[in-house]
């Protein structure tokens, strides 16, 4: 975690995501919730966006306050209960022709007459509304009565929303007001997210672009060069069992380079599917460093950053091959959170359903209750898994980014994997 200056305020970077914002819409509102959720999650540090599961509809012809809120289904209420905000989108008009009102953490957003107000997409509109709520959470004491383009405009004249999206800024007067207020930690964190959101909304809107389209094209144009092609990443096809020609150093360098590339790429604010692609390349190259291991099946769920790979290891190094059989299953996860014993249970089920007896469970961001530096002290849930492996004669190997660090700092990949398998089996 580091801290930085923003609008004259000290703000923390790298804070843990805690605040959920869930999106719901009526079926006829043309908003791409999936793309917006994915891309906002990639740029926001504090807010986590989610697509709601419950069905939402406004029962009456006009959105009423508070009746339309009272009539919301109990499933929506339950789902939205712990949210910072829940946004419910409709094309229907508010009784007072507002864009929105709110009740607790629930806000019905009205896109009524949208095409008469602006030529910009409703996707941009949703992102503006989200920014608006964050701005009010940071400071709800003031609103401009005229249209200035500032996020603090009240928008009495609804066509002002066009200027709002295109300028996406906080005016100097509002900035001064905010910077002299005593903000809570949450408010300061929200300000960091608001800054990111306004930057991207303005960048798209001022060129008349749908923000989702903007994300798609800027991914291909600007980020593509950073998502290096597979062949650009280093790949070696030997095992450095004997260091006859100084290969071990080359090999370590290759892993170091691979990890460095990976970390650099994932530090960028990328949408989840791009992160997934980079992680897939990383995982494939990492295990591809073992001579003789050939991929026979690979399923990548790029949005969730999860990959299943099956390797034919029959022509791989001997100690692993005779112990584990011809094929090995590798499950790779790169979620924000640690994996837990439930994930490993599921992994064992997947492993068995494929008729395999050995697998590597690689969770980049760690596994609850497991540390390669202190592997004897595993928690109770994790111990049950070990017992299960014993009973089923299954070889399951947990692996986390720390293991890669150990290899990078001087370990031999095959030796390390073998040692981990041995450890696991011997516990
Ligand atoms: Zn202002």
The proportion of residues forming helix, as a percent range, comes to 40-55%
Shape: elongated
- Helical segment tally? 16
CATH topology of the largest domain: Collagenase (Catalytic Domain)
User: How many β-strand runs?
Assistant: 12
Could you tell me the radius of gyration in angstroms?
A: 26 Å
Description:
The structure is a single chain. The protein is an alpha/beta fold and 427 residues long. It has two domains: 217 residues, Collagenase (Catalytic Domain), CATH 3.40.390; 199 residues, Restriction Endonuclease (3-Layer(aba) Sandwich), CATH 3.40.91. 44% of the residues lie in helices and 16% in strands. The chain has 16 helices and twelve strands. The strands form three sheets. A five-stranded mixed beta sheet has the order 4-3-5-7-6, covered by helices on one side. A five-stranded mixed beta sheet has the order 8-9-10-11-12, with helices on both faces. Strand 1 and strand 2 form a beta hairpin. The N terminus is likely disordered. Bound molecules: zinc ion. The site of zinc ion has 6 residues, from helix 7.
């Amino acid at each position: 975690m580091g801290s930085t200056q923003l609008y004259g305020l000290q703000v923390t970077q790298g804070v843990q995501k805690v605040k959920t914002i869930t999106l719901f819409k009526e079926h006829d509102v043309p908003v791409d919730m999936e793309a917006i959720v994915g891309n906002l999650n990639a740029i926001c540090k504090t807010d986590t966006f989610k697509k709601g599961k419950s069905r939402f509809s406004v029962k009456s012809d006009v959105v009423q306050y508070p009746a339309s809120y009272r009539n919301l289904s109990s499933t929506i209420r339950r789902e939205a209960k712990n949210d910072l905000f829940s946004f419910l989108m409709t094309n229907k008009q508010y009784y007072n022709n507002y864009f929105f009102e709110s009740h607790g953490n629930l806000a019905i957003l009205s896109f009524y007459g949208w095409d008469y107000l602006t030529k910009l997409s409703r996707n941009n509109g949703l992102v503006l509304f989200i920014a608006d709520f964050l701005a009010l959470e940071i400071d709800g004491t003031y609103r401009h009565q005229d249209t200035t383009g500032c996020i603090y405009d009240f928008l009495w004249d609804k066509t002002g929303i066009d200027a709002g999206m295109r300028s996406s800024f906080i005016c100097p007067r509002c900035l001064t007001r905010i910077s002299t207020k005593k903000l809570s930690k949450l408010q300061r964190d929200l300000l960091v997210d608001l800054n990111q959101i306004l930057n991207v909304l303005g960048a798209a809107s001022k060129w008349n672009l749908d923000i989702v389209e903007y994300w798609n094209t800027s991914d291909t144009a600007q980020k593509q060069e950073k998502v290096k092609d597979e062949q650009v990443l280093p790949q070696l096809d030997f095992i450095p069992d004997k260091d006859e020609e100084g290969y071990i150093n080359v090999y370590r360098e290759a892993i170091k380079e691979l990890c460095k590339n990976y970390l650099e790429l994932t530090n960028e604010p990328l949408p989840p599917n791009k992160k997934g692609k980079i992680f897939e390349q990383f995982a494939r190259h990492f295990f591809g460093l073992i001579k003789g291991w050939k991929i026979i099946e690979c399923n990548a769920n790029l949005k969730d950053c999860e990959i299943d790979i099956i390797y034919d290891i029959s022509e791989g190094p001997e100690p692993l091959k005779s112990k584990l059989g011809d094929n090995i299953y590798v499950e790779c996860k790169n979620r924000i959170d640690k994996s837990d014993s439930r994930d490993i249970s599921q992994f064992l089920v997947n492993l068995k359903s494929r008729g395999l007896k050995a697998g590597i469970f690689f969770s980049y961001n760690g596994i609850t209750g497991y540390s390669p530096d202190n592997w004897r002290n595993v928690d109770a849930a994790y111990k049950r898994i070990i017992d299960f492996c014993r009973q089923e004669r299954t070889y399951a190997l947990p692996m986390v980014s720390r293991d890669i660090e150990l290899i990078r700092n001087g370990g031999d990949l095959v030796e390390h994997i073998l040692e981990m398998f041995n450890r696991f089996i011997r516990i």
